[in-house]
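We close this part of the discussion by returning to an individual protein. In the encoding step, the backbone of a single protein was reduced to a row of integers, each denoting a local shape. The sequence in question and its structure tokens are set out directly beneath this paragraph.
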Amino acid sequence: MKYLDLKAITSMHGDEIGEAVQRVVKSGWYLLGEEVRRFEEKYAAYTGTRHCIACSNGLDALYLTLRAWKELGVLTDGDEVIVPANTYIASILSITDNALRPVLVEPRTDTLQIDDSLIERAITPRTRAIMLVHLYGRCSFTGRIAAIVSRHGLKIIEDNAQAHGCRFAGRHTGALGDAAAHSFYPGKNLGALGDAGAVTTNDDSLAATIRAIANYGSSRKYVFGYRGRNCRMDEVQAAVLSVKLRHLDADNARRREIATALIEGIDNPLITTPDARVWNDAVWHIFPVLCPHRDALQQHLATRGVATLIHYPIPPHRQECYAGDYLTMPQGGLPITERIHREELSLPCNQVMTDDEVQQVIAAANDFSFHQPYAHT
């Protein structure tokens, strides 16, 4: 069993996708056309925001948002952005690439999201924003965070790469902060057939600035108000995303069914599954379990025909590219983050899995014992 069968996922809506791609091919218009405009309108409506700016990928979406805030005078070099320590490297890259300073905050062990009880102590006179990363498809926004940003006058940027369709109090992620960055990498819940991304926001000035920077810094042809980049989404990806957006809620519902079955079925004391009571609104881009013998568990599952992935084996603060004084960390270090990166294993959980395959995962997980010849810590 593959961890994620992208061919099967695409085949679910193959005829619609084929028609959409052919429509683009026959149109003769491949950039900045009607397909992108149409997807932007649909995705803005879906998230409940006034603006959607399509772009090239999720990292660019993050970068463009922070860069636009700098152009608008909201941020300046050296300002601090609070970010969960257990995030993917792209979150950190977007901050440092804008000459801003990431301030790492530990996650909670039950939600694996940023610990909102630790945020306020990380705030300094240079703090200007919080990057909320909805890791694994679970919303990281809380009422406590809303109160903190209001009290301290901070911006919220959501990294919504893993949580398309997730909700908090009836509102979609992507509409909970001042701006949100979305990745449509093929393996995401809403995935393109290549790289693609977007920013959503209700801020008119921010939207216009992002749109210009993403198009070489130009808001009208051959006039350049910013030293911009080429970060545009192509028409094929937009057309495909418009098709897949129609099916996103149904696909997420199937993911929830599978996640529920995994939580209820896996009862191996060596494996910690997510707590259904605190993960009830997740869209399960990733189904993470924790195991102190993670590598042995992964090997065992592979012998039982179950492919898995690790998200992520090395935390950002241990990466070679951040070996210098680039990141601000709490005095006591990041033991919870390091435990998660040491123990996390992602089990298959996606809309093309059959019930039999779900039961195969459960049986293989429950059959795991650390007293196996190849097991090691």
Observations:
- Residues 153 and 225 are 28 Å apart (CA to CA).
